[in-house]
Amino acid sequence: xxxxxxxxxxxxxxxxxxxxxxxxxxxxxxxxxxxxxxxxxxxxxxxxxxxxxxxxxxxxxxxxxxxxxxxxxxxxxxxxxxxxxxxxxxxxxxxxxxxxxxxxxxxxxxxxxxxxxxxxxxxxxxxxxxxxxxxxxxxxxxxxxxxxxxxxxxxxxxxxxxxxxxxxxxxxxxxxxxxxxxxxxxxxxxxxxxxxxxxxxxxxxxxxxxxxxxxxxxxxxxxxxxxxxxxxxxxxxxxxxxxxxxxxxxxxxxxxxxxxxxxxxxxxxxxxxxxxxxxxxxxxxxxxxxxxxxxxxxxxxxxxxxxxxxxxxxxxxxxxxxxxxxxxxxxxxxxxxxxxxxxxxxxxxxxxxxxxxxxxxxxxxxxxxxxxxxxxxxxxxxxxxxxxxxxxxxxxxxxxxxxxxxxxxxxxxxxxxxxxx
Length: 421
Description:
There is one protein chain. The chain is mainly beta. The chain contains 1 helix and 35 strands. It is globular and about 50 Å long.
């Protein structure tokens, strides 16, 4: 039997960067009876997903697939922002701008401003593979067409086409990365799209696979610069590499395999400058690892606190999302009865906060934050079940006024970065 999918969203108040907190993540229903597919995304307080009517043969009827959003800054319910007889899918969000792929012709890239209306950015086609979905960050929208990377400038209303045989694009601000080629021929490329004269830069050139790059824009003392991370394979195992002007090996080849990094930038305390954090998975129990000083020194590769009661019994852990100084991860007990739970982790302070701890199957989480009091992290994920689907939302918990005021300063720094990203 095909499992249904639940989508849950939670919020917690009282964010203060650089200080650990005891967050609270209660839940309440948001909508009911929704079958969610592929895309699940979040930017700031806005979460988005695709909801379809179930079909007994094909799992869902594609002509019923619509884009849904929920704004955790408000108190209103989730709402569908499309309602038509074509397939809308592959949603991505930046601020209050939503992009998605519409199944008309070879595929359209559609932009929906939640405070205005809908615009078709391109009707020239979007590749149908899952990693070709449109992405958005500030003034840039990126998608794949014919195995090439299309970089659309919303301000100039122009587009550049770069690369060939490309896959797994990712962007943050003006920086775009992608994988080009397959297997041993796969390499990582970077484009700084801030200038129309810039050309793609090849970051790897070797005879091993370099895959799934991710990028973040870091605001440092000398200006904004990119940090890129990806997985490479050698000697029968995989490792994590990082690039910021030069390439650094974060993890050794021997011992364990390391894969699928995610990278973010965040400000610690009330400092105006940012640093990068990279998180990834490795083989074996308690295998979610991360670094904030990613200089290749093994002593700077950190893990979840094994002494935390939520991690008792050495479960498997999987990285779901990292944003700012926060992570959401999945705790997995495969035997004797499978159990999949979600927890929140604050890098500063190394604090684990369980979100679920039950017999449900929870996973595929994304992470955002409320920018109005009570300021705090927001988590959205899917819950799988055999009998149906439902979407949940957390009630806004009470926050101490002083904590909320202090937190607002840190949050404004995050919002300022989001406006640039």
